Amino acid sequence: MSDEASLEPPLEPVSLSRRLAAEALGTAMLLAVVVGSGIMGERLAGGNDAIALIANTLATGAGLTVLIVVFGPLSGAHFNPAVTLVFALRREIGAGLAAAYALVQAVGGIAGVWAAHAMFAEPVWQVSAKLRAGPSQMFSEAVATFGLIVTILGCVRLRPAFTPMAVGLYITAAYWFTASTSFANPAVTLARCLSNTFAGIAPASAPGFVAGQLAGALAAAALMAWLLPTRRA
Amino acid sequence: MSDEASLEPPLEPVSLSRRLAAEALGTAMLLAVVVGSGIMGERLAGGNDAIALIANTLATGAGLTVLIVVFGPLSGAHFNPAVTLVFALRREIGAGLAAAYALVQAVGGIAGVWAAHAMFAEPVWQVSAKLRAGPSQMFSEAVATFGLIVTILGCVRLRPAFTPMAVGLYITAAYWFTASTSFANPAVTLARCLSNTFAGIAPASAPGFVAGQLAGALAAAALMAWLLPTRRA
Amino acid sequence: MSDEASLEPPLEPVSLSRRLAAEALGTAMLLAVVVGSGIMGERLAGGNDAIALIANTLATGAGLTVLIVVFGPLSGAHFNPAVTLVFALRREIGAGLAAAYALVQAVGGIAGVWAAHAMFAEPVWQVSAKLRAGPSQMFSEAVATFGLIVTILGCVRLRPAFTPMAVGLYITAAYWFTASTSFANPAVTLARCLSNTFAGIAPASAPGFVAGQLAGALAAAALMAWLLPTRRA
Amino acid sequence: MSDEASLEPPLEPVSLSRRLAAEALGTAMLLAVVVGSGIMGERLAGGNDAIALIANTLATGAGLTVLIVVFGPLSGAHFNPAVTLVFALRREIGAGLAAAYALVQAVGGIAGVWAAHAMFAEPVWQVSAKLRAGPSQMFSEAVATFGLIVTILGCVRLRPAFTPMAVGLYITAAYWFTASTSFANPAVTLARCLSNTFAGIAPASAPGFVAGQLAGALAAAALMAWLLPTRRA
């Protein structure tokens, strides 16, 4: 069992504290981008939600690519408990480290939402009232996370240098081709419960989202284990 | 005669079942992106079709690049019977495998449309009533497919690593510079007959589209055979 | 004196007929993209010119990158008499070949405009009535072409592999930061005289545009000759 | 102490006059892009500020990437006194050269604003009346500059070839996820005081912006010194 759950091969051994700091900071910045650009988009778009979502998409796709470029060599740039779970199932990260990753992802994500609120002079503490429920939303999250894991596992194996761009481009597409705008990430889902803005989700809708995400992630992991067998010797 | 019809050199021999699965899954995800983002764009755009098409374009260009990155090394990432035909004429893929590719592309494409409908809580079974007829539409499809084949054959020969990005960027442009929004793909055309949404096409218009696509593909294949002769020995 | 006016090093000697065909076809496709996406943008945008220009920008930036990727190794992918002139002044292309390039660029550009008209069921023969006059427009063209030549000469010398993307990104920016939407190309200016659509320019405004373009090109060539001296031996 | 404050390793020793010219010209072109595309966006957007900012974002992200590609090998492409300060604190640029960089950045930035005004037939001399005040704006600038320095220091160390694209993508995101639209640059702040257009900022708001920028830059420099220790021997 290895502790190298990196999307990228690390340049050198990275200490545990730096790994966790990278994972927390990266997830915080991701949520600041998602929630902040959602607020800005909604404020400026004059009621046209497509324009607000285009802005939200541009910011998220661009920002996510940069965060994976910068933090990938340090922590693997998971920023996502579903991704960490898949690497744990593949035994590319130990269970203890995986649990620590998930914890700092959750804490970082919430900090990022609060930073976005502070930047936009919103109350820091909020709870979303935006229901996103029903089987179509859950299926959307399953598809969204399935595609994300397929993208990550395919790139890590076949084209590692393109991984940051591929993940950013994938989310750019997924904001639009899924009915749920593709959260695809339990830590993001949790954090967005705490923002009653464009990007928020009511806590009552969160369990369905997370269930869909985990189902999609597991399906993708199983498929890719068959499609790209790791034994090459 | 070779069976290596890849846009990218495969990392290792890929079994037939994995090739066909990659081709089917990739085409399914492509159609889910095209049709899903079309539905989302139209729902949010408040009646402004340019905004809906910008969203559709961003999602398709980004998603297609990612799909070619991930599936290119497995199946060549054709996702398109016109592309497969060109490689068959160039004797870079055998006739039997080419026929199998076209079949799974068609089946995958339809499955992708149905997945998009399920995500957006639309009836799964639909038939488009959107007529896209006339010589200008056919000529548009010929130009669109001509440019696609020129892009693919030029990149594969001259800059293989840029192929996924180039194809995504080409389609980004082609959604706008052709009057038909550049289907450029018989499997996509067939699948979009089964969606009565933004991206749909009435079955009555499909034969003209496919005829234009094949004419454009053959013209591009002939031109590129002269422009980039393959004999280098 | 060399005949290798390539933005990219050619993979192998390319015959004169193939060079000229590449230059003509590339310029034709560039104009089809510029004019076609302008028509589509204007038709769909519901009177909002910013939305139309965003669509026009996305298509042009994406399409131009692809065309340079594909045709760069064959002809250098100038598509622009101002670029050819600069390479001729730098003695990287002979005078005779430069004149032939300029001729096929002009012919190809006009063919591309006509192809766009045919795709959109517009009359093939048109003359623009859109005046774009005044010193601010001329200064805009000078700045636009200055920046284009700085981009090309900087990339060719310092980062050749990034040239196609850099030129596409430069034009993406220049459509918006210049008051003239950055034609930056005498062949494009001539061809756009023949389209009375979104991207057109009245013939009466063309000489001022071309004068600005040449002034900007020469200023950039002089600056870059100082900034990046070619003697390295 | 080294004078090599490059974002990129220079290809060969670059003379002081060329370095300063590159830094001045690059900053001038950056401001022409920022202010010019702001004017164009506002003029065409029909009152929808989100559409204007999308255009402003596309132009700035694309243009900034190109400018770093071209001028990075010459001067390091700082274009930003906060970036120069961080490299000076890291002793990667001498104090005298750093001061000269800051001076030509300021002069270049103002020249770029005036060039934009001339292109758009605006009065060259303007002073902005657009107040951007309050703690949320200052905090936004701190976050924006923090993220910019994290991006630059991470890329320079871990993925230098991706630096130009990463900085362009970061600013693309930051225009939207910060309430201040991410100036993140004291020279840009100064220059934008002299434009009473979409991108302007009232001189009374500038000190708060610069204070936020410096605080964010110093915090990022401290964090990255810990996260990516430079000693590898």
Low-confidence stretches of chain A: 1-6
Please identify the structural class of chain A as seen in this structure.
mainly alpha
Main interface: chain pair and counts = A-D, 45 and 39 residues
Q: What would you say the CATH architecture of chain A is?
A: Up-down Bundle
Broad shape of chain A: globular
**Average of pLDDT of chain A:** 93
The proportion of strand residues of chain A reads: under 5%
What's the tally of helices of chain A?
8
Give me the Rg of chain A, rounded: 17 Å
CATH level 3 topology of chain A? Glycerol uptake facilitator protein
Topology of chain A as a string of helices (H) and strands (E): HHHHHHHH
| CATH homologous superfamily heading of chain A | Glycerol uptake facilitator protein
Measured between the Cα atoms of the first and last residue of chain A, the distance is 18 Å
Membrane topology (chains A, B, C, D): Multi-pass membrane protein
Main location (chains A, B, C, D): membrane
Pfam family, one (chains A, B, C, D): MIP
InterPro entries (chains A, B, C, D): Aquaporin-like (IPR023271), Aquaporin_transptr (IPR034294), MIP (IPR000425)
